[in-house]
Design brief:
By secondary structure, this protein is mainly alpha-helical. It has 8 helices and 4 strands, in the order βαββαβαααααα. The strands form 2 sheets. Strands 1-3 form a two-stranded parallel sheet. It has a two-stranded parallel ribbon with strand order 2-4.
Length: about 200
Amino acid sequence: MKFITEDDLRILFRREPFTTYDLPAGTRLTPGARQFLVDKKIPISDDPMVVKRKNEKPAEKKEEAPEKEICRDRFLLKKKTLQAQFLETGLELLNRDVLLAEQIFALERKLSDLGKEGREVEFGFEPCTGFHKENFNKPSDDCFEITGFHAQSEKGKEIVLLHRLRCSVRELAEETENAGLNPFINRLSQMICLEYGGKTCQRK
């Protein structure tokens, strides 16, 4: 069997440039010759390697779920984790402040409906100096920074639990470009403010 070298092809190409290369019967290309044709983007006809690749069945592609569906599934999974955090927080607060715990359980039920078709989450809340009907669904910063000072206050345990929950909600909101979570964040901010300052607004 005769091998066609890179030099053979270069000489042939200099004599008369070609756009396809017909491999003569009974010949093979050396690796260098094959690379020359690849670099020139010249297809090879009757190349045993090409014929073999043509005869090979393409690997079956696994059907992938649409990206939006994958994102929705991920959101629902993370929402379930967040709901569990609400329930855990409610249980921790139950022995300290029953009314506050009930508010957390109520938020968890609203969170459960979020994203379900045909269900709208409605928030019935008392407006305060910082939040009202016009801005309750909009993103907002914390009313005040939670520090060790607040943690050591009389309602420190409640404040830290609510703040941690608010941080978790805000993380999910960031990952999902809000997804209707702003009211949950703002309601938690209201609750933190009330725990620390009573009826005095702490929003700056």
